[in-house]
Design a protein that fits this description.
- This protein is an alpha+beta fold.
- β14 and β15 form a beta hairpin.
- α11 runs parallel beside α13.
- It is globular.
Length: 613
């Protein structure tokens, strides 16, 4: 078997034991890596109903057959577990040196089980695994933790760690690495914290297995240079993702004031041009020649790495239009190990709920200093407010009541990313049917929807585009594993990725083979959701209800008086189900599962779901 090490490292923190396991060629070809390995493992090994923050949950780091090779933007790892935020499968990807180091150590996946009896750091060096006390770094933020590890082991090691948010089980705590890399929005960092696992340090010395090392080196190195050339020609990295903000503001797709508004006259003050003008450094992931980490100084003088999502949700969505203040909120999220998107939505929902009279409180939109304090309270679960905020918008709304669930901006418990879909039906659908909750990673169709089709349409072409993008963004890039930005931002053709895959594995796959794997993964994540929530219905695939409310429609601007229409959205959702091979409840049919090679999983699903033919 070429392209894979064929090995899994399984670690039990409770017993302080570990073992190397192997996987079959059939497993490798069926699930490929990354998200595929993670969801299959968690589906097979977790019992339904386990506590995501209990010792029975498993924390997974999964890589793909091109992870860490010298080709464009391959320094990505998938981290996964049963989500403490949503209650079913959750994952995320992040750039980290742990990718190359874990593969050089001889592993394609790390599975961490049990719970340590004290704060622990896991040190992996080839076949050696050590369980080291982490008391010295427990309670520290992610930057100090990284610095401590680098001072002890050198900057070349791979590191995954958590901050105080993960330690204190904030449900949207993430896994952190390098300067500003983070992954695992659905609370994967809290799973590490629940296991008292502060950090993982990895060092490997073996070559990464490849079927054609010389061919891979030649193609990958040349392509890395070419992607760098394309980036210089396009100028994308000058503003990187922060350059999206003016477009979203112009087309009424910007989150402002807990998504109540879709644009703001002061948004230009935190746009990509202003962020680039304030830049003091640039960071990126390993094997990247189009680094997107636009870094500025925050109000307190810390370096804070920005992207569009954190700018929009910690800036305009809180009605904060000051780059240093917004950057301070971003820095605190990174330091505490909190997801910036969920943090922004949680704070804005709290301010909105106070405005609407659903809860008493002293936080108002635009109050950056109080927002900083609230982030600290959430990360440490300090006091009643800290505990509320640490649980995310869905649980907060259930505690507040008084109709607040309608404007708690989440889908299936995961907070909405930074695109306001008050009148963008296709993107609203992409949030509704995103497999782990409202993540923009799965299908970003705003430019297609606004520039290349009729914005008002709820037609099947939009469902088809969502599926196409899911296969690419949430499928291909999440299981091979690589960053999608060369393709998205600089037009790097998709057919390069089967080329890398084939050079690594010796196989002869095309993109159609990749789409089949992606569809298989999406169906299994759906089955995982149904197993945890047997009473699930198609309404679980709806975006936040406030987007359907005529009273919430804009009173001025490009979409004045317009809002999503629930009957038409339901028709769009049905188009998606029909094209996916799901029944009217949103459940994959038996025929679909058989076509994807999921007969065994279908037999298991019959225990908790009435599958149709």
């Amino acid at each position: 078997m070429k392209g894979w090490t064929g090995n899994i490292l399984r670690v039990d923190l409770s017993s302080k034991t570990y073992k190397k396991e192997t996987f079959s060629e059939e497993f490798a070809h069926k699930w490929v890596g990354g998200r595929g390995f993670a969801v299959k493992t968690l589906y097979d090994e977790l019992k339904p109903g386990i506590d995501p923050l209990g010792p029975d949950n498993k924390f997974i780091v999964a890589l793909g057959p091109i992870s860490g090779i010298p080709a464009p933007n391959t320094g990505k790892a998938v981290v996964a577990a049963k989500s403490p935020l949503t209650g079913f499968y959750g994952d995320g990807n992040l750039g980290t040196r742990a990718v190359e180091q874990l593969r050089k150590a001889g592993y394609d996946m790390l599975i961490v089980e049990g719970k340590a009896d004290r704060p622990t750091m896991l040190y992996i060096e080839d076949d050696k695994v050590e369980f080291l006390p982490a008391d010295e770094i427990w309670g520290k933020g992610t930057f100090a933790c990284n610095d401590w590890i680098y001072s002890k082991y050198g900057k070349g090691v791979g590191v995954l760690n958590i901050g105080q948010g993960g330690e204190n089980l904030a449900r949207f705590a993430v896994v952190r690495s390098l300067e500003g890399r983070a992954g695992g929005r659905p609370g994967i960092g809290a799973v590490m914290g629940s296991k008292l696992l502060k950090a993982i340090v990895v060092k490997g010395t073996r070559p990464i297995p490849q079927a054609d090392p010389a061919g891979m080196k030649a193609a990958g190195s040349a392509d890395l240079r070419q992607v760098g050339v394309l980036d210089k020609q396009s100028g994308w990295s000058i503003q990187a993702t922060t350059g999206v903000l003016p477009f979203c503001n112009e087309v009424a797709g910007l989150p402002v004031r807990n998504f109540r508004k879709t644009h703001h006259p002061l948004a230009w003050q935190v746009d990509g041009e202003r962020c680039n003008n304030a830049r003091v450094a640039t960071y990126g992931c390993p094997t990247c020649t189009m680094r997107c980490g636009v870094t500025v100084l925050d109000k307190e003088g810390h370096e804070s790495e920005l992207d569009y999502e954190n700018v929009a949700l910690l800036g305009p969505n809180l009605e904060i239009f000051d780059i240093p203040q917004m950057a301070s909120l971003n820095y605190l999220c990174d330091e505490f190990g909190l997801d910036t998107m969920s943090a922004g939505c949680t704070l804005s929902f709290y301010a909105d709920a106070i405005d609407q009279g659903a809860v008493d409180g002293d936080f108002k939109f635009g109050d950056a200093e109080r927002a900083k304090e609230l982030l600290r309270l959430a990360a440490h679960r300090e006091g009643k407010v800290g505990h509320l905020l640490a649980d995310g918008t869905r649980r907060m709304a259930r505690a507040f009541g008084r109709g607040s669930e309608a404007y708690a901006m989440n889908v299936k418990g995961l907070e909405v990313a930074a695109y306001n879909c008050k009148f963008i039906p296709g993107q609203a659908l992409s949030y509704g049917v995103a497999p782990i909750g409202a993540h923009h990673r799965e299908a970003w169709i705003i430019t297609f929807e606004i520039k290349h089709t009729t914005r008002e349409s709820y037609g099947p072409e939009k469902a088809a585009k969502v599926i196409e993008l899911q296969r690419i963004r949430g499928g291909l890039f999440e299981f091979i594993v690589a960053c999608r930005f060369p393709w998205i931002e600089n037009g790097w053709p998709l057919d390069h990725y089967p080329k890398y895959f084939n050079l690594a594995t010796g196989l002869n796959w095309g993109l159609d083979d990749m789409w089949q794997v992606g569809d298989r993964i999406y169906s299994l994540i759906k089955l995982h959701y149904l197993r945890e929530f047997p009473g699930a219905s198609r309404e679980d695939d709806y975006p936040p209800r406030v987007w359907f409310d005529p009273a919430n429609a804009d009173t001025e601007g490009p979409i004045a008086g317009k809002h999503l229409e629930i009957d038409k959205y339901d028709g769009l959702l049905q188009h998606y189900y029909d094209q996916r091979g799901y029944d009217r409840r949103g459940i994959p049919t038996m025929a679909t599962l058989r076509s994807l090679g999921l007969e065994d999983e279908a037999a298991d699903a019959r225990k908790y779901a009435d599958l149709t033919e």
